Amino acid sequence: MSGRPIPFARNSSHFVHIQNSLAAVLKNLKAIKGRTAKVLWVSCRLNRSEMQNSPVFVGWVEDVGAINMRVTRDRPYAPVEIRFGDTHPSKLYSKCLQTPLGRVVARNWGRPHKADATSQRIGETFYGETHRRSVPIKVANVYVGTLNAAFSGDPDGADGEIGKILIDWAQTEKSVLVKYIEDNLEFSGPKCLRQRRN
Q1: Which CATH number fits the domain that encloses residue 38?
Q2: Pairing verdict, β 142-152 and 185-186
Q3: Residue 130 domain-assigned?
Q4: Do the domain assignments include residue 197?
Q5: 55 and 137 Cβ atoms separated by less than 8 Å
Q6: Is 92 helix (H, G, I), strand (E, B) or coil?
Q7: Is residue 10 in some structural domain?
Q8: Does any domain span residue 195?
Q9: Which residues contact 36 (CB under 8 A, 6 or more apart)?
Q10: Residue 154 to residue 140: CA distance in whole angstroms
């Protein structure tokens, strides 16, 4: 695989392309009819080049309402400014890389799930995040990272639509995000897991 190694620079065209895709995912999630939970942000982590499970934050896009919440909570810096290039491992990231294609990893930060003890818990402290939905990103039959969406309130009633949007952006060949990673970055990761047929 040829392409720019991961991590890449914050002021690079790679960052811009990833951010543009995340902004489109956020827009799609906000357009879900009947959604009661507030969409806070969308983020992306990719494996460090030549590694199997070594996450690097490469993008984070906030909803305007979430920005207002963050600033009201006296958090002036956007998470992308704080976390870009961060290589902190997480149980959620590892879980995503072990999840079969077409499945969403759901987290309810109240119960039954808890953030890692070493987590910065930015979603919770900046916005009051209560739920997250994450999927592995598939490129050429490899899990190269994760696509994540955070919510304030339980998005359970819209999970079908949320999952469809995240999977379309993270696991289909038509996805602008998947195509960009495949054509421009030195991606790596474990082989994808197929869903078992019952």
Answers
A1: 3.30.450.40
A2: unpaired
A3: yes
A4: no
A5: no
A6: helix
A7: yes
A8: no
A9: 153, 154, 155, 157, 158
A10: 33
CA angle 1, 87, 39 (to 5 degrees): 95
Joined together, the tokens standing for residue 119 give 């987590």
Q: Is the dihedral of CA 19, 105, 167, 54 positive or negative?
A: positive
Q: What is the CA radius of gyration of the chain?
A: 16
List the structure tokens of 181: 């990673």
C-alpha separations of 117 from 113, 114, 135, 149 in Å: 12, 8, 22, 21
Nearest to residue 39, comparing CAs of 137, 135, 148?
148
- Stated as kind and residue range, the H or E segment containing 91 is helix 91-96
Residue numbers of the domain that contains 174: 4-186
What would the pLDDT profile of 113-152 be if each residue is shown by its tens digit?
A: 565 555 566 777 788 899 999 999 999 999 999 999 999 9
The single-letter DSSP state of residue 193 is: P
Q: What is the pLDDT of residues 44-58, one digit of tens each?
A: 999 999 999 999 999
Residue 191 structure tokens: 């082989």
How many structural domains comprise the chain? 1
Residues 50-80 pLDDT 10s: 999 999 999 999 999 999 999 999 999 999 9
The per-residue pLDDT for 23 is 98
Cis peptide before 112 (omega within 30 of 0): yes
Q: How far apart are CA 136 and CA 52, in angstroms?
A: 13
What sections of 109-193 are H helices per DSSP?
122-127, 159-171, 176-184
